[in-house]
Amino acid sequence: MAETTYKMRSKYNETPTYEKFKFHTHENYEIYLFLEGNVNFIIENKTYSLEPYDVVIAKKHELHNISFLKASPYRRMYLNVWPSFFQEHNCQEYEEFFLNPSLPGDNKIPAKVVRSSGLYDAFKKYQKYSNNFQLLNTPILDAIVIEILYLINNTKQFATPDYSNTPVAGIILFLNEHYTEDISMEMLQKKFFLSKNYLCKIFKNTTGLTIFDYIRKKRLTLVQDLINENM
Q1: Which of these, 189, 58, 84, lies nearest to 48 by C-alpha position?
Q2: CA atoms lying within 13 Å on the CB side of residue 95
Q3: Contact, 30 vs 77, CB < 8 A?
Q4: Strands, sheet with 6-13, edge to edge from the N-terminal-most edge strand
Q5: What is the pLDDT of residues 87-113, one digit of tens each?
Q6: Could you give the CA distance from residue 129 to residue 141 in angstroms, rounded to a whole number?
């Protein structure tokens, strides 16, 4: 069997726990179809409220997580596509969207666009022709993944983020711009006019990480990129 360069999954959690959904990154691109639950999707410093059939895209190395607003069943499908897929299937032009840094409004495709564009239908076709996600690397599944990438590249309507966690959004934006520098709690306290204890509390409650765990993740991501570039 050829090396897998994409994989779609469907997951359901009857009673999800916050500990399972901390900030994390991928070496690939994640295309996430929300189906059920009461959650926000957080990508770096952006927060998106979700309704069924919204699609959210997390690009390579973008830290993201799920914030549960209340306890309720949580169901989603998601497709992970590795960068090598585009070259192997001669569709490099469809990777351009994923290579560009995310702007404030290009992570979430609203449900009405997902349904009208055929994106939701493509996810369901994948489920059908993969025998409910049991098969991989068949020509028809390759074609459906390319179709999904094509539809995303041709999407013109993205949703703007919901900055409900404004203090944390500002902190994350600052950390993303300065994580290669020396950062101290004293610096952050002066910058955001918040006590150190409150800074730590709201950041951990929102992201599941401490501020310095977040900084370490960003630094390790940079190191991995440099290693991949033989630097």
Answers
A1: 58
A2: 16
A3: no
A4: 6-13, 74-81, 29-36, 55-58, 108-109
A5: 999 999 999 999 887 666 689 999 999
A6: 7
What sections of the chain are H helices per DSSP? Answer: 84-88, 96-99, 111-117, 119-129, 139-153, 166-178, 185-192, 196-207, 211-228
Cα–Cα dist 191/181, whole Å: 15
Residues in the chain: 231
Adjacent-strand bridge partners of 64: 24, 43
> pLDDT (tens digit, 9 = 90+) per residue, 151-163?
999 998 999 887 6
Output phi, psi for 211, to 5 deg. -60, -40
Q: Give Cβ neighbours of residue 121 (< 8 Å, ≥ 6 apart).
A: none
User: Integer distance in angstroms from the first to the last C-alpha of the chain?
Assistant: 33
Triad 149, 150, 155: Cα angle to 5°: 100
Cα 200–Cα 67–Cα 11 angle in degrees, nearest 5: 140
- Beta partners for residue 47, in sequence order: 42
Q: Do residues 61 and 28 make contact, with C-beta atoms less than 8 angstroms apart?
A: no
- Number of helices (H) and strands (E) in the chain: give both, helices first: 9, 8
Interacting residues of 164 by C-beta distance below 8 A, sequence separation 6+: 40, 47, 49
What does pTM read for this prediction?
0.84
